[in-house]
Amino acid sequence: MKNKLLAGLLAVLGFSSCSPFSDEDDNVDGGGMLMYGVIRESFVVKGKVTDTGDKPIEGIRVVLKPSAASEYSYIPQNTAYSAEDGSFKTVPWPAGPVYSIIAEDVDGEKNGVFKPLEKTFKSNGLNYEDDKPVRIVDFELEENKDLDRR
Question: What's the pTM value of the predicted model, to 2 decimals?
Answer without folding.
Answer: 0.65
